[in-house]
Amino acid sequence: MNAFLGTFFDWDYILQVLPDLLRTGLLNTLVLAVCSAAVGTVLGMGLAILGLSTKRWFRWPARVYTDIFRGLPTILTILLIGQGLAVVARGIVGRNPYPLGILALSLVASAYIGEIFRSGIQSVDKGQMEAARALGMSYAKAMWLVVIPQGVRRVLPALVNQFISLVKDSSLVYFLGFLTSERELFRIAQDLAANTGNLSPLVAAGLCYLVITVPLTHLVNHIDKRLRAGRAATRREPGGLDGLVAGGKVA
Question: What pTM does this model have?
Answer without folding.
Answer: 0.85
